[in-house]
Design a protein that fits this description.
The complex is a heterotrimer of chains A (about 90), B (about 300) and C (about 400). Helices cover about 40% and strands about 20% of the residues of chain B. In chain B, strands 3-2-4-5-1-6-10-9-7-8 form a 10-stranded mixed beta sheet, with helices on both faces. In chain B, a hairpin with a 3-residue loop joins strand 9 and strand 10. Chain C contains 12 helices and 12 strands. In chain C, a hairpin with a 4-residue loop joins strand 11 and strand 12. Classes of the chains: A mainly alpha (about 90), B alpha/beta (about 300), C alpha/beta (about 400). The interface between B and C is large, with 61 and 67 residues.
């Protein structure tokens, strides 16, 4: 899957998984910070994103300390998926 | 020190419910627009019982013009069933893999009391009772003790339960809901204080609940209260068309004409005595001739409670 | 005039043993109850837990009850019976006696078995299992078995549940509304809680390491513990052995997050300060703290910050007994109250199972070895839970 296509898909999935009803997927910037500032997600959202990656992409994230790096933005998640899918 | 009931906040099935409004054997809450009570980030996560409970609590505080209570106490017989069921079902279907944390987090019984604390940024005493038909009574007793012991001035206390498809099915099959029962749900919250607000009409005089006891003993206890307070109205937990034998016995023994039934209004649920507590308040407000109201509630012929309110 | 509240009976079943003495013996031999999952039927065999070794059939045999009951009822009954062993037969009829229990998931062990078939076919499971689901069922059942005819109730404030049961019983005796209160809590290990905590990524697959910089999470446990509380006068009248007094209790809310404590540990700080105030003691009077100490990054850090801010440079001896018993959730407050009572009565200091590396930027160091014959006069026990529910208790000689 191309990176651009993956990013758009991820935005849709994030909005659905986290029930961000007031957010339109296209409004989320590729490099926008998801946690704390930016989209303002919190630690429960991070755990929901772990489930999302496992359910939709078959990727497991076991060490929660990796979370902040991987889940920094839509781009970092997309890159993580592409790198690990190849491997 | 007196314990005053200074306000009510309630979300219940329409109190004017008639047969037509009972849908498939259930009376469900008429719910407000929650956007006035929660930010969208909170709203997306919390289940219906947390919305009903928290919103009723906020209404009670507003009605009492208390911004920050000294204690938050919730009674819930079955707790957050929707999230419990959601997590349990996915756990089994997905064979313990890829489970969402959110329903688990909000499945705990104390989710309602803690959501209220979070909304208020309230660091005070916070407790949750979950004991069938004693859940609200226990919360009420705790509130009463805190005020009497001078540990708190304003206590937010309430009872809340929800009916969901799974529990309706299972409770019917197991007999918690009898064929003549209408299933119900609701949230009734109150601010109890050691000082009387200008709209206050009632004082909590006595609360007692006992297990494994015969109705005869309860009738004796009720008679003692009757003589001490000259009770002029009694509220019992039955539907007027299907009055429980214990209720009939108590009514006959006390010979009180003013008898009020409420299960036709809110349906059958574990914390419906909180609805009765609100009903007692309304009665004291609307009928000035009534001075002392007794609420009787029972479960399985063995667990009984008596709550006494007086006009003030 | 307020009554003095004393502890006169203890009952405990945990992964360490089926009664109080067996559990203490395990500490003395430095045997942790934590191991890989053996009894609970789950796919998560990679996780370590502190299971009670007995099957339901074995527990039913010990209790003399039906094997059809929930595991929570069996555990609750066994620990309750041990606690009330020295009470006279008329304790419930001639005295104002309440039974105040606590649990987080009640009879979930039955419900989750029921749902295995229920999800596919509404009529495929044994509906009788559902009778065990709610928290109140356990309390009602045990209360009836032991002949309680007075007040019964159940508290469910997550991991602080049974600490609050102890506080309620204490308050009611103090205010002379009760003579005797049997207080405590229970939780059986279930797939529901195991998977729930697993989604939060706070379970350690190995033996947990509370208060250690290398800690990565908690081990769930299971168990039940009950204490008999009564007014000092009734205790004398009934010629009861007194373990300790309950002198302090406080319940506060962290009001920060559903599952995590705040960085400044507001809730834990308020709970400990409030309990000290109620007891009339100074911080440096406390000889031992039985910490909540779950072994998660978040809890231990916040709890240590709160302890350091209150006790300053005079930190009492402290440890997390959860490194032996696992985290027994709704039972944990009572399990640890039993240890606190024993610490005072028998001069015991309970250790951490292991400790190597102090937490970064923090100074607290847990005890590493089991000690007897210590002069322990005042013990603080902490219980913090989801939803910000924080409670502290203080017991005195």
């Amino acid at each position: 899957m191309e990176l651009e296509e993956l990013k758009q898909k991820l935005k849709q999935q994030i909005v659905t998984q986290l029930k961000l009803n007031e957010v339109k997927p296209e409004e989320i910037g590729d490099d926008e910070q998801l946690f704390g500032k930016g989209l303002g997600l919190d630690s429960i959202d991070a755990l929901e994103l772990v489930v999302l990656l496992e359910e939709e992409y078959g990727l497991k994230i076991n060490h929660s300390e990796d979370g902040p790096k991987i889940f920094y933005s839509v781009s970092t998640i997309a890159n993580f998926i592409l790198e690990n899918k190849k491997a | 020190m007196a314990v005053y009931i200074n306000s009510i906040g309630q979300i219940a099935p329409n109190s004017l419910a008639n047969e037509e409004q009972i849908i498939a054997g259930k009376l469900t809450c008429i719910e407000p627009d929650y956007s006035a009570f929660f930010d969208s980030r909170t709203l997306r996560r919390i289940s219906r019982i947390i919305k009903i409970g928290t919103t009723s609590a906020m209404m009670a505080l507003k009605n009492a013009t208390v911004e920050m209570p000294d204690a938050i106490i919730v009674g819930t017989g079955f707790g957050c069933q929707e999230d419990t069921s959601l997590f349990l079902r996915k756990l089994i279907t997905n064979k313990e893999e890829t489970l969402n944390p959110t329903p688990f987090i909000f499945s705990t019984h104390n989710s309602i009391a803690s959501q209220i604390a979070l909304q208020l940024k309230c660091h005070a005493y916070n407790s949750t009772y979950s004991h069938r038909n004693f859940s609200f009574e226990s919360a009420l007793l705790d509130a009463y003790l805190l005020i009497k012991d001078d540990d708190a001035q304003h206590v937010l206390v309430g009872g809340v339960d929800e009916i969901i498809d799974d529990s309706f099915d299972l409770f019917t099959r197991i007999g918690y809901l009898k064929p003549t029962d209408i299933a119900g749900e609701g949230a009734s919250f109150f601010v109890l204080s050691d000082v009387k607000s200008k709209d206050c009409v009632a004082e909590l005089k006595s609360i007692e609940f006992v297990a494994n006891t015969e109705i005869a003993t309860i009738i004796d206890k009720a008679k003692t209260l009757y003589h001490e307070y000259s009770i002029d109205a009694i509220i019992v937990g039955s539907h007027p068309d299907h009055v429980h034998q214990n209720d009939q016995d108590l009514i006959a023994a006390l010979k009180i004409e003013n008898t009020i039934f409420y299960k036709q209004l809110c349906g059958e649920y574990a914390t419906s005595s909180a609805y009765a507590f609100a009903t007692a308040n309304t009665l004291l407000k609307e009928n000035k001739a009534v001075k002392n109201v007794l609420i009787y509630n029972q479960y399985a012929n063995s667990n009984h409670s008596l709550i006494l309110l007086s006009a003030c | 005039m307020q009554n003095k509240v004393v502890v006169t009976g203890l009952g405990l079943i945990s992964a360490l043993g089926n009664n109080v003495n067996e559990c203490v013996a395990a500490f003395e031999k430095h045997q942790s109850g934590v191991d890989k999952i053996k009894r609970l039927k789950t796919n998560h065999v990679e996780l370590s837990v502190a299971e009670i070794k007995s099957t339901n059939a074995e527990l039913a045999a010990i209790a003399g009850l039906s094997v059809e009951l929930s595991r929570s009822i069996l555990l609750s009954y066994i620990a309750t019976k041990e606690a009330i062993a020295t009470l006279p037969a008329n304790f419930s009829t001639d005295f104002r006696t309440a039974y105040i229990s606590a649990t987080t998931v009640g009879g979930m062990d039955k419900t989750e078995v029921f749902f295995e078939n229920y999800v596919d076919d509404n009529n495929a499971s044994n509906i009788e299992f559902i009778r065990h689901h709610d928290c109140g069922k356990i309390t009602d059942f045990v209360a009836k078995e032991i002949g309680i005819k007075g007040m019964v109730t159940t508290i469910s404030t997550a991991c602080s549940s049974s600490a609050n049961a102890i506080a309620l019983g204490t308050r009611m005796i103090k205010q002379n509304l009760l003579d005797i209160a049997i207080v405590g809590g229970v939780d059986a290990l279930t797939k529901f809680t195991l998977n729930g905590f697993n989604t939060l990524q706070i379970l350690d697959t190995e033996q947990c390491r509370p208060l250690d910089e290398s800690r990565v999470g908690l081990n769930l446990g299971e168990g039940a513990a009950y204490l008999v509380l009564m007014s000092e006068n009734v205790a004398k009248q009934l010629n009861q052995e007194i373990f300790c007094n309950v002198v302090g209790y406080h319940n506060a809310n962290d009001s920060f997050h559903q599952t995590a404590l705040s960085d400044d540990a507001k809730g834990p700080t308020l709970a400990m300060q409030g309990a000290l105030k109620k007891s009339g003691l100074q911080a440096n009077d406390i000889d031992y703290i039985n910490m909540h100490g779950t072994g998660t990054r978040n809890n231990d850090n916040a709890e240590a910050i709160a302890i350091q801010s209150i006790f300053k440079d005079k930190i009492p001896k402290l440890s997390s007994t959860k490194s032996f018993t696992g985290h027994t959730l709704g039972a944990s407050g009572a399990v640890e109250a039993v240890f606190s009572a024993l610490a005072i009565k028998q001069g015991i200091v309970f250790p951490n199972y292991s400790f190597e590396q102090p937490m970064e930027n923090l100074t607290i160091l847990p005890e590493k070895i089991f000690l007897r014959h210590q002069d322990i006069n005042h013990v603080m026990s902490n219980s913090f839970g989801f939803g910000g529910n924080c409670s502290s208790l203080i017991f005195s000689k």
